Prior knowledge:
Layout: H1 2-25, E1 26-27, E2 30-31, E3 33-35, E4 41-44, E5 50-53, E6 68-70, E7 75-77, E8 83-85, E9 88-90, E10 95-98, E11 106-109, E12 114-116, E13 121-127, E14 138-142, E15 149-150, E16 163-165, E17 172-173, E18 195-196
Parallel strand pairs: 6-12, 10-13, 11-14, 13-15, 14-16, 15-17, 17-18
Antiparallel strand pairs: 1-2, 3-4, 4-5, 6-7, 7-8, 9-10, 12-13
Amino acid sequence: MLKRIFTLFLCVILFCCALSMTALASNGNSIGDLQIQDGQSAAVDENLKLIYEPVTFFSNSPSAESWTYSSSKKTLTNSDGSIILYNVTDNGDNSLTIGSNTGFSGTLDLSGTIEDSSGTKYTITAIGDSAFYGCTNLESVTLPQGLEAIGDWAFCSCSSLSVIEIPVSITAIGEGVFSACTTLSAVELPADLTSIGK
């Protein structure tokens, strides 16, 4: 009797899980895409199997001058609508912080002013903790004038990173920012730097 109750209990749990996956996956009567953490995507197939698909980030990006910020999606998009960066947050004063983007490759130019769809202008003032951690194909980065801080481990393990210029506006660099950047031979730090991590 106890075995039958336990079996019935497991069947109810499995049925509830299947219903919740169907609710997450359905878009009308079709199976749709899901958006998950750090800009990675996944899809649910007809058999309710979760299929993980890493996003290929834009490579060799143009200057931030041609990008559009979406506060609702927390993204920067190129003029053709392709997403350049995920996890971008508004600091409340028309300045942006770049969050985790673990798949970026090529050349990244963050200089310039960014606009949203209503024409409000933004500048990037901070690179967040672990923003480009492990982007092994990121080769060079142009940071914007006016950038004030680079968070802990922001470029850690970017093994192809060979060129990065730190603007004079930087006052704080976090811990391990360039740790395991094996191709990076030198970084010139600004004279007004007031804080640097270990």
